[in-house]
């Protein structure tokens, strides 16, 4: 329908299936092949359904009709929905399986700021309520529930949440329900997001929850540093997630791995596992790479590597709390550069609030097997803070080849540690006594 030009634009989506989970291009390891890109022979344009990219016309009906057509007139191999250059104002909408949402260069899908018509959905069962307020929550701007084989990509087009109206309601405490995410996939699998700009989310930017086989690569995520709770990417009770080659600058954690909140997350019991984060650059007043604090379903097998962080509150942050429960284990962070940060490494058990007064204070989280290697930083105010839980000390906290330099003329404050065991080698300034030097034995035998 759109002719040979569009075929050329999407030809990069063709990829032979691979039995290998990771693909090496030269010396660069990537996620390619984890979720195979698919060529869609059936192509439609939002303009075929009356879409107008003038920045003023409301295109909600056009998006919903186009996606209805994809869902009900199923084409073999799925359908590509093409968004040409222009600014397409719309209310929130749902995606469907076997589709590609493709934004051309200069294309913008922009959220309306009419919050009165924003749909409400049920709270996540692993949270028991909205993250900010009791009850339901506003549906994400672009939403997918129970879908598979969905690609959101393009030529660096933009998905704009116009979140300032929501941020202001949060500041004025006039919200009735939890703010919407920009993109959320629930109960879904085989998802790809790539080559796009995501900006000004009302709340968290990209939130895959109860998902598997998710790839997020070559994206830019932007929000002002004073925008509240605008996390970049939050894999939540999800498995086999790969995040790579992206720039994130937001008002909260750049990447935060989660798995539910207190008694609700414990009961739901779905961990986040096998999460890979690599080649991320970014800036935030909060953390660069975070685990938690909502991690009640457990988090395991996380690898974060080749990370560059500037003007941060915290470089690497593992955070939990009494009442959370859950096991956080086998977390590896390596090859990290930080510049102008308040705390280089923070691993603590007293962070985060509770959904209600029904949490079990005896549900103590377990944190074990956290390995942080090859980290270098300048203008670091405090190199590290590791504070475990008295009745559940953190174990196997292993530090290797870490060098933090303070602000010129002021140096750095000392490490602070309590209720923790592990080891260290080649760490400067020298860490706390609880992390004795280790030479190839015990829980830190990786050295």
Automatic annotation (TrEMBL):
Which Pfam families does the record associate with it?
Answer: Glyco_hydro_28
State any GO BP term from the record. carbohydrate metabolic process
Q: Which UniProt keywords apply?
A: Glycosidase, Hydrolase, Signal
SMART domains noted in UniProt: PbH1
The cross-references to InterPro entries, in alphabetical order and at most eight, read: GH28_Enzymes, Glyco_hydro_28, PbH1, Pectin_lyas_fold, Pectin_lyase_fold/virulence
Domain of life assignment: Eukaryota
* GO MF annotation list: polygalacturonase activity
**Signal peptide annotation:** 1-26
Q: Which family does it belong to?
A: Belongs to the glycosyl hydrolase 28 family.
**Know the name of this protein?**
Polygalacturonase
Organism equals Protea cynaroides
Phylogenetic classification of the source organism? Eukaryota, Viridiplantae, Streptophyta, Embryophyta, Tracheophyta
